[in-house]
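Just scan my protein:

——
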Amino acid sequence: MPPARTFAQEAVSVLHPALPVRGCPVIDAFGIVCPSAGFRLTTICHCFDAEMITRRVTGRNALPRSVLSALLAGLTGLTAACRPSEPKGDDVVSPEPVAYRVPAESEVSDSVVLASIRRGRALLANTRDSLPDFVGNRLQCVHCHPDNGTRPNVMPWVGVYARFPQYRSRAGGIQIIEDRINDCMLRSMNGRPLVTESSDMRDIVAYMAFLSIGYPVFSTVDGQSFPRLDPLDADTVRGAATFAAKCAVCHGPDGEGTDLYPALWGPGSFNIGAGMARVRTAAAFIKVAMPQTAPGTLTDQEAYDLAALITSRPRPDFPGKERDWPNGDPPPDVAYPVVSKPIK
């Protein structure tokens, strides 16, 4: 007969088995989110991994046994609910995307919240000048997210707040929206992360939340991200000719930008760790958003040729990039080698 398990072992056995289920439940500093069960259970236990759980159960700062007993009773049912299963009846979630809609300021009744939303929008539109201590290049957030992040099919922020927390393969784990914003500060802005508790981060998040008014949690939205292109063989010589004819007038003949238009390479541009440094990502963005005077007029081949040219040019490095995609699933166009191995 196997020996009886201690209370601590029982606690870990209940809490920990749910964690390897990718994205469900999502356990973070706010509690537990279970997409398949369709509800959030806020808890006092921040259970990130087995070591953390063990410390909370047995360590110096362990939670009281009575509190853990109640927690375990509730989580036993929760973790069972989070196991993958076939939805039935009213539990079926429609795969249809939600219609694209930009919320209006009139939908915000709190004047203090509205002021925060407006400041967040201003920070994203004037990032370089408003946050000089955190931006290391000549870019603004709206260079990649035009019309203050409201243009459909061009990486809009509309509905994005409702899609977090989410699993991010580049990070190899769950991220909350503040993590994603700081990813952009580090990579696309070649800068430093914002302090999560700062007014700058809170105002940016407030604007993102405003753009998600009315959107269901974890919903897919019409017009999110951008349309993907089928991979094509690209030619940087053709790309240089297209650049000179259709791009240099705004971005400059050397691609290093102007006071009005972003640098596409060089020290004033995004670093190699940014998503836009990948050929397929850059091509899809260029196809739908460029040139600014006539977006969508380039052919798929022109977009790929331009992307190949831009991503081949020198740009700032991103220290630690080799640790991206730690679960061994980098995309085929990643611009640098990673040390992770595929999971067998």
Remarks:
- The chain has twelve helices and five strands.
- Residues 251 and 261 are 6 Å apart (CA to CA).
